[in-house]
Design a protein that fits this description.
single chain; alpha+beta; three-stranded mixed sheet; three-stranded antiparallel sheet; 8 helices; elongated
């Protein structure tokens, strides 16, 4: 996991983020994702200056292993050490049951962020055990951030983001707003409000921006929650059987056989339903039931 001196903002990785959410649901199933309905509690990963450095790091790592529930490794043990290094942290991926995690020496002084660094690295182990990965290192790191967040430990990564006029810090590969987006997608599914957990004002602001974008996913045609203007545009495009460039939906066929495809607002799996009808569509990947005016 890299250090970041200059913090990028916005949603430059959004396509990969959405692909990662779909991949997670496909690999774990909807029932598997529901096992993570409760986020890791702040008390379980708290690490103060008065705690012993190594015992505290091991305790936090053990709490994250329990939360993430590494498949096939109920006794997985993370051995945490500190050293001077370029990146924030790294993990040695092996067969287990022991995994060796190295944290940057600066975490000796910034213990409040140890949980965030460990959450990312332990998720690397989880993905390794699940045999879930993308083709490039960049995309794999984005996948790791997304899975960490969606499974209830990534609020720590967003809370580690701090920025003011003289200094900045961010952990992970996603921008703060992208972390907020994934956190909001999780919050929608589990009816969760993560805002009380943030100790960083900058992190809270990024969560709000991500939440606003996530809310828009449920207001796009052909979903029934779409606004009047979007609905009017959709109806006109359906008449001609051609969606405008950049639209999230697409039309197939003509006349009575026309169908419209669009991304599920929960898992981003593309759905296909008959056009010109009001109906309920069920996503076969995440199980969501969606009201549509197609």
């Amino acid at each position: 996991m890299p250090n970041a001196n200059e913090v990028a903002h916005g949603f430059p990785h959004l396509d990969t983020v959405r692909t990662a959410i779909t991949a997670l649901y496909r690999r774990l199933s909807a029932d598997g994702v529901r096992r993570y309905a409760i986020s890791v509690p702040a008390a379980d990963v708290a690490f103060g200056d008065e705690d012993d450095l190594h015992l505290g790091a091991q305790r936090v790592a053990a709490a994250l292993v329990r939360h993430l529930g590494l498949p096939g490794l109920p006794q997985a043990r993370m051995v945490v050490t500190f050293r001077e290094m370029e990146h924030a942290a790294s993990v040695e991926l092996a067969a287990g049951p022991e995994y060796f995690i190295e944290l940057n020496d600066r975490f000796r002084r910034h213990r409040r962020d140890v949980g965030a660094a460990l959450a990312h690295e332990i998720t690397h182990v989880l993905l390794h055990r699940l045999d879930l990965g993308f083709a490039t290192t960049r995309d794999n790191e984005i996948l790791t951030d997304v899975v960490t967040t969606y499974l209830g430990a990534g609020w720590l990564l967003l809370d580690a983001y701090r920025e003011d006029a003289v200094s900045s810090q961010k952990l992970g590969y996603l921008t703060p707003e992208e972390f907020g987006y994934v956190l909001a997608k999780r919050a929608e599914v589990f009816d969760e409000d993560p805002s009380p957990w943030f100790t960083s004002a900058a992190a809270y602001e990024a969560w709000v921006r991500g939440r606003d974008l996530a809310a828009g996913d449920r207001r796009r045609p052909p979903l029934a929650q779409a606004g009047w203007a979007a609905r009017h545009r959709y109806t006109k495009e359906r008449r001609y059987g051609r969606a405008a460039p950049g639209a999230s939906y697409a039309f197939e066929g003509t006349g009575a056989s026309m169908r419209v495809s669009f991304p599920c607002p929960v898992c981003r799996q593309r759905l296909r339903v008959p056009a010109g009808r009001r109906l309920h569509a069920r996503c076969r990947v995440c199980g969501s039931v969606l009201e549509c005016e197609a």
